[in-house]
Write a structure and sequence with these properties.
By secondary structure, the protein is of the alpha/beta class. Among the domains are: 158 residues, HUPs (Rossmann fold, 3-Layer(aba) Sandwich), CATH 3.40.50; 142 residues, Arc Repressor Mutant, subunit A. 47% of the residues lie in helices and 13% in strands. It contains 19 helices and 13 strands. A 4-stranded antiparallel β-sheet has the order 4-5-8-9. Strands 1-2-3 form a 3-stranded parallel β-sheet, with helices on one face. Helix 3 packs across helix 4, helix 14 crosses helix 16 and helix 15 crosses helix 17. The C terminus is likely disordered. Bound molecules: glutamic acid. Pfam families: Anticodon_2, tRNA-synt_1c. One of its GO terms (biological process) is glutamyl-tRNA aminoacylation. One of its GO terms (cellular component) is cytosol. This is Glutamate--tRNA ligase.
Length: 477
């Protein structure tokens, strides 16, 4: 058996897609092994033949690979059945287990040969890095079953034999296994294995403080991959579910995590998982990427007609994972499509009956802005100088009065980035064109209002609205 080298393991059962809570165990076991220059084992616990599926095993392997949790050893529990059997026979020979002939529970009258452990009925103590020294009485357990027959060992025996043979020194796993530990310690003693140090991780709860599950706020890890999260952010964010380094620092690279990780700093109380916080971790890690990487990832996700480098900062500001790019791009599609202003839904400009003067004023503002911008040269067409061009004027007339219609002229939307950002992306000629077209649109509305429907009758009928829309449509297409 190896010296004192730390060996940890992740021992998932491939019976479903594992969620983040499960991978937290893998992350802690990995970090602890690396921190101590030890090794990390991946053991697929597939002894439950009926429920174990290859696709889930594949998913576990893919997930660990994506997270970069490289393991030093990999095996399936089912490949070790002969070892389990070896120890089973040894225990029987030495009087620590016995074959028990029992009637099957189904009432069929069939007699089965189970293997039971000869329970010494003592208090069992074990060291738990998180819970401290734990002592549990084993009397109530009776002579528990450890194998269905010699060739079919059950969970506890398989875990103990496998941990022993792999030289596992630290069993890091979920709190749901605490109650299994006394049985496993007893089996371990019976086969002559040293008792490992345990570290039972507190539960992970959903934000509503109910147990995290596949249905409650926890996705399979590969789903985060598909949504465009960064593996280094997931590693960092998940490590912080129930652990912290005891300092203010939150953003850690893999090496920094390895360096900082301590089992003693894993909290005892349940940890709460928040997807929002995970998104925050992701955004922070995205900011650490080089501009080239950010650009490449965003451009990849953009629709063909939007692949324009100028739009990258505006998109980056609005995403927290690559999967958001498409959603944000959809909202910014107006930058690349011709605007018609046909669905103007700005009540203040439509409410001519009560405020005809507002549209006149807005027209005046837009015309002045147009004149100011026309003076700006192509080579100075950037955020700062555009802002300087308009800033004094908008300060004089009231910022909102000027910037709001300008923003609307450029986006056609109630909400959008600020007008200077838009103008920079659109470029000089498209910016001027959009302002001119909105002016024309508003003039057409006022024409209808004041000339076609009489002096005092304002735009208030559906027909008139329709007309104004049509005029705009023909004028802009
Ligand atoms: N296979 C068990 C599970 O998936 C873990 C056993 C252990 O870590 O000891 O919950």
């Amino acid at each position: 058996m190896p010296d004192n080298k730390v060996v940890t393991r992740f021992a998932p059962s491939p019976t479903g897609l594992l969620h983040l809570g499960n991978y937290r165990t893998a992350i802690f076991a990995y970090l602890y092994a690396k921190k101590n220059n030890g090794s990390f084992v991946l053991r697929i616990e597939d002894t439950d033949r009926k429920r174990s599926k290859k696709e889930y095993e594949k998913n576990i392997i893919e997930s660990l690979k994506w997270l970069g949790l490289d393991y030093d050893k990999f095996y399936r529990q089912s490949e070790h059945v002969d070892r389990h059997q070896f120890y089973l026979e040894k225990m029987i020979k030495e009087g620590n287990a016995y074959i028990s002939k029992e009637a099957a529970k189904d009432g069929s009258g069939v007699i089965k040969e189970l293997v039971r452990f000869k329970n010494p009925n003592i208090d069992v103590s074990f060291k738990d890095e998180i819970k401290g020294e734990v002592t549990m009485n084993t009397k109530d357990l009776g002579d528990f079953v450890i194998a269905k027959n010699l060739g079919e060992p059950l969970f506890h025996l398989a875990v103990v034999v496998d941990d022993f043979e792999a030289g596992v020194t630290h069993v890091i796993r979920g709190e749901d296994h605490v109650s299994n530990t006394p049985r496993q310690v007893l089996i371990g003693r019976a086969i002559g294995a040293p008792t490992p140090i345990y570290a039972h991780m507190p539960l992970v709860l959903a934000p509503d403080r109910l147990k995290l599950s596949k249905r409650r706020g926890a996705l399979p890890l590969t789903e985060y991959k598909n949504r465009g999260f960064l593996p280094e952010a997931i590693l960092n964010g998940v490590a912080f579910v129930g652990w912290n380094p005891g300092t203010e620092k939150e953003i850690f690279t893999r090496d920094e995590l390895i360096e900082a990780f301590e089992l003693s700093r894993v909290q005892k109380s349940p940890a709460v998982f928040s997807e929002e916080k995970l998104e925050w971790f992701n955004k922070e890690h995205m900011k650490l990427l080089s501009p080239e990487e950010i650009e490449k990832n965003i451009l990849e996700q953009l629709p063909d007609n939007m692949r324009n480098k100028k739009i990258i900062p505006i998109i980056f500001e609005r995403i927290s994972k690559w999967g958001d790019v498409k959603i944000v791009a959809e909202k910014l599609a107006y930058l690349f499509n011709r605007l018609g202003y046909s669905d103007v839904n700005l009540p203040i400009w439509r409410d001519l009956e009560n405020h005809p003067e507002k549209i006149e004023k807005t027209l005046g503002y837009l015309k002045s802005v147009l004149d100011l911008l026309k003076v700006a040269k192509e080579e100075n067409w950037n955020y700062e100088s555009l802002k300087n061009t308009i800033w004094d004027y908008s300060g004089k007339e009231g910022r909102g009065n000027i910037l709001w219609p300008l923003r609307f002229a450029l986006s056609g939307e109630k909400e959008s980035p600020d007008p200077f950002e838009l103008a920079e992306i659109l470029g000089r000629s498209e910016t001027l064109d959009r302002i001119e077209r909105l002016i024309k649109f508003l003039e057409d509305i006022t024409k209808i209002t004041f000339t076609e429907t009489g002096e005092t009758n304002m735009l208030n009928s559906k027909e008139a609205t329709q007309d104004s829309t049509n005029i705009t449509d023909t004028s802009t297409t």
